[in-house]
Amino acid sequence: MSSNVQTTFDADAYRDHGWRTALDENYYVRLGLEPNGLIEPSDIAAAFQARHGWWLNRENQLKRGQAVPILNTVGPHVPQAIKNLSLAKNVLSDPSTRAAYDRELFGSRLKAWREGALRGAVGTLTGTVSRDVVSILVAQGVTLGFKEADARQVVRAEFDRAGLKVVDGASEAAPTPVGPRQQTPASPAPQQPRPGSSQFAGTPSRGLTAGPAHTIEGRITRFPVSDRKHEISIGGVVVGADGAVWAGLEARNKDNSRVDWVGRLQDGKWTWVTDRLPGFITFMTLGVDGAIWFTGTNGYAGSMGRLEPNGKITEISLGSPTPDDFDDKGARLFEPRQRFGWGEIISCSDGRLWVSGKRAAVMMSVGPDGVRRYPMPSGINPQHLTEGPDNALWFTSNWNERSGSKSVGRMDFDGALRQYALPGYAAGPVTMGDALAADIVAGSDGYLWLAESERARLSVMSTAGEIMNRIDLQPVNAYGQGPGAITAGPDGALWVTGGLFAPNYVVRVDIHGSQTYLSLGDSSGAHIFTDGVRLWLLMKEPDKGDGRWPPVVVCRID
User: Fold this and answer.
1) Per-residue CA distances from 184 to 351, 473, 478, 527 (Å)
2) Which of 61, 43, 51 is nearest to 24 (CA)?
3) For labelling alongside 380, which of 28, 124, 406, 420 has CA 20 to 30 A away?
4) Which residues on adjacent β-strands are paired with residue 539?
C-alpha cells in the first residue's frame, strides 16, 4: 500500500462519527482516501472492505432485530451507505473511470471557486487593477489546491468577463530578508512617508478617526486604526477575497463600556463595515465561498459566524465548547465556561471549516451537511490549527493541570486521530490566564513548524510526528517570552512574532534556519498574516506616556 494512505480502520472512530463519510457525494471521502496519484488498487480494496463490512454488520443487526443503540442513528442510512461504497469502489478501481472522475471532480471544484468566491471578489473591482491583485487571487486558488496555471487562467477569464484591465501599477517583489541578524535590535526611528506611499483617507464611524500612514526603514507602512481616544483590543484578522484586510476590534470608551466592530482596510482607507456586535471576534478565516468566517467570545461564545462583504453576519450555533463548568484544577467556575468561546477557525481543502475547542477536549467541523463534533481523548485540548502538507488537520494541544500534556495532534478529515508528545519544554502555553498556546503552520519544505512560547525556539516536525530540527531564536521579547505567532510567507520562509504580549520583533527564518530580524520596539499583541503576495501585521504600538491610549495599526511589510 502507498505510504500516505490510511491503512488501518478505527472501528470506534467510524462508529462515533466516521460513518457519515459513506453518505458523502465524493467517492474518495466515502472510502476515507485522499485524491492523489499515490493511491494503489490495494488501498482502495482495503478501505472498501473495512467500511463495507461495517455497514453489512449494521444491516444484519437490523434484519435480526437487535436492540443496538447505534442503529437508532445509522439505521435509516444503511441501504444508501452500502450502495454508495460499492459505487465508489467500482469507479475508483478502474483506471479509466477513475481518471474521468478525477477530471470531473477537479472541474467541478474549479467551477465552484470561479463562480463563487472568485467571481464575488472580481465583482468588487472596477476599471484597472494592478498585477498584485491578480497574484493575490491566484494565490488563493493555489491555497485551495488548484495548479497555479489553472488558477491564473480562470482569474484572467473572470477579469475579461468583468471588463477589467490589468496594469503594472503597484506590483512588487515578495519580501526579502530585512538585513543582518541583530542580537539586540534597535528600534527604528519614524520617518516621513516615502513618495507614492498610501495615505490613510478613511474616517471610521462612531467617532473613531485615523491619521496618515508612514513608512519605517522602507520596510513597514503603517495604517493607524484609532485616534487614541479609545482603548482598542485586537481580535481576528484575515485578508478577504477582495484583497482587503478585515479585522475584529473592540473599543473601550471612557466610561469603560465596550463596543465590538469589524473594520476593513483597502487602498489605504479604513472603514467600519458592521454595526455594534454582540461579541468580540477573535479568529477569522476566508471560506471557499468567498465569505469570512469567524469565532468569538461573549455573544459569539457558542457559535461561529459568516461575514459577507456588505457587513451582514449569519450565526451558526456550535453549542458550548466545553463539556462542563470546571476549570483545569477541578474547581467550579462562577459562570459557565462557554464565556471563553471557541478557538481558532480555518478553512481546509476538504471544503469544510474546522474549529478548535479552546481549552476543551473537542474539535468541530462545519460543511454543507451541517456540524460534526469530534470529542478528544482526555488531556488533548486543541488550540492552533493548520492543514498539513499531507492534507490532514494538525494542531497544538495546550497543557493543563489534570493531564500535563504538551503535544501535537494530527486528525484526518474523517476524524482519525494521532497524537505526538513533545519532550521537555514544548508548545505552549504562555504564562497569563487563558492565553493562546504556541502556533503551528505548514512550511514550504513539507514539514510542520511550531513556535514554542516557553522557549525562544522553533521546532520542525515531519508528518510522521518526528522532530527533525530545533532552531533557537534570539532575542526574546521584553517579557522573556519566546515566539507568539508564525506564518508561512510568500517568499517560502517562516515569519514569526516575538511573543503574545510584547512582540518587540519580527523574525524571518528560512527553511535552513538562517534568521534575520526587524524590530517592532515595544509594540504588543501582533498578529502576522499574508495575502499570498505581501506580509501584514496588526498590532498595538507602544504607550507614549502622554495619558492617551496607544495607537493600533495595520502594517504592510514590503
Assistant:
1) 44, 12, 11, 22
2) 51
3) 28
4) 553
